[in-house]
Amino acid sequence: MAGWPEERRPEPEERRRPWGALALIALTGIFLMRTGLPDRPGGPPRPGPAHAAPADHAPAARPLPRSVPDRVVIPALQVSAPVIARGLDAHGAIEAPPSADTRVTGWYKGAPTPGERGTAVLVGHVDSYTGPAVFYGLGGLKRGATVEVRRRDGRRAVFAVYSVRTFAKDRFPAEQVYGSAGRPELRLLTCGGTYHAGSGYAGNVVVFARLVAPGGGHPATPSATPGAP
């Protein structure tokens, strides 16, 4: 992408559209990323199924001011990927990252930026017909793994994973996944669950993480780019 889409500062949280009302938008946006690898045995890693989002009561770091994300780094997956802003398409769905480059991730600009108070959302493809994509290994992340988001203001927001879950698309708990926890949190989303030829993946993998090091913390940056494990 040649540049970032124009962004406006979001309304105060109490005036924003409730995440619960965006359930269909969220499902449709992730639905667009079910590209699938029908000939790949085993498929991407799968976390345990869940019917509700977990609670995490550990203290979080102090929130950061708003600044758009430029890159996401996940050392455990050897992922270092650019982030582009995504809005809603003509059908009211979250725009998926470009299918021409499945190494790119998308930040939903209707949500907080990573490090702000509230829940920031990054989405990415799981695979394509040519091989694994940027979030192929997402389901294999473990509790305590770090996710570093590099922001336009030069700060690095470091998050710690506290849960990884798979949710069925037709029972996706949008309010629990996207709703504000009152502290800086991050969600990483991709497709997952059982793959069906013709209809794609049956669910979504969701990573839950909380901010632990605003503007500090420097996890080792992987040298590899996203791809096959």
Describe, in plain words, how this protein is organized in 3D.
This protein has 229 residues and is mainly beta. It has one domain (25-54, 64-214): Sortase (Sortase, Chain: A), CATH 2.40.260.10. Helix content is 6%, strand content 33%. The protein is built from 2 helices and 10 strands, in the order αββββββββαββ. It has helices at 23-31, 174-178; strands at residues 69-74, 79-86, 105-108, 118-123, 127-128, 131-132, 146-151, 156-168, 184-196, 200-214. The strands form 2 sheets. Strands 1-2-3-4-9-10-8-7 form an 8-stranded mixed β-barrel. A two-stranded antiparallel ribbon has the order 5-6. Strand 7 and strand 8 (156-168) form a beta hairpin.
**Which parts are unreliable, with pLDDT below 50 for 5 consecutive residues or more?**
1-40, 217-229
- Beta-strand percentage range: 25-35%
Q: What's the structural domain tally?
A: 1
Alpha-beta classification:
mainly beta
> How do the SSEs run, as a string of H and E?
HEEEEEEEEHEE
Mean pLDDT: 76
Rg is 16 Å
Pfam families: Sortase (PF04203)
InterPro entries: Sortase, Sortase_dom-sf, Sortase_F
Biased composition (Low complexity): 49-64
GO molecular function, one term: hydrolase activity
